[in-house]
UniProtKB/TrEMBL annotation:
This is UPF0056 membrane protein. It holds the Pfam family MarC. Belongs to the UPF0056 (MarC) family. It is a multi-pass membrane protein. It comes from Massilia atriviolacea. Keywords: Cell membrane, Membrane, Transmembrane, Transmembrane helix. InterPro entries: Multi_antbiot-R_MarC. It is found in: Cell membrane. GO terms for cellular component: plasma membrane.
């Protein structure tokens, strides 16, 4: 049970990539008054949390409605995770999600979606659809724990970026990308094994 919680927590931490999103949060709120920034951070994290929670609970019904199997979602999700991991290891000029522009107060886009609750995170929580109460509690608990990490990282985002510096932040993001790529490959192989068993 503990191992499952830790694995779920690590996977959610990697796909939401809080440290990698620090520069995006800092730049998106550059024009926002300082006294409002913490409120925006809490709001965006709450929106991302509830979106992921919604996908976690209704993911199985969504799959059934779209006539998708768990196997195809696992393989497709692994490909998305791998592409995100590659962008973390080899950064693009526009960042992981492209150039989002500046100015005004951010609302939902780009901070809640897709920075935190992006395609890889949504695909990942869809895989957490469970039948047992124990697994549901573990997955929700891991999501709550990760949401607390978001707040711990994004609330002091400006100070964190200043103290660690861009080089350390970039190195940390590349390390997370490397770990995420290995997890994506493992998820892909698991999907292939399930597909072969279903033949």
């Amino acid at each position: 049970m503990t191992q499952t919680f830790i694995q779920t927590f690590i996977l959610l931490f990697l796909v939401t990539d809080p440290f990698g999103n620090v520069p995006l949060f800092v730049s998106a709120m550059a024009q926002v008054p300082k006294q409002r920034r913490w409120k925006i951070v809490v709001r965006e994290c709450a929106i991302a949390f509830f979106v992921l929670l919604l996908f976690m609970f209704f993911g199985r019904h969504l799959l059934a409605a779209m006539q998708l199997s768990q196997i195809s979602l696992r393989i497709g999700g692994s490909v998305i995770l791998f592409l995100i991991a590659m962008r973390m290891v080899f950064p693009q000029p526009g960042g992981m999600f492209g150039d989002n522009g500046k100015g005004g107060e951010p609302f939902i886009v780009p901070l809640a979606i897709p920075a935190i609750a992006g395609p890889s995170a949504l695909a990942t929580v869809l895989l957490f659809s469970s039948n047992t109460t124990t697994e549901i509690v573990i997955h929700v608990g891991a999501l709550v724990a990760v949401a607390l990490v978001w707040l711990a990282v994004f609330l002091p985002a400006e100070r964190l970026q200043e103290k660690l510096g861009p080089q350390v932040m970039a190195a940390f993001e590349r390390l997370m990308g490397l770990i995420l790529s290995a997890m994506a490959v493992e998820m892909f192989l698991a999907g292939i094994r399930e597909f072969i068993k279903s033949l």
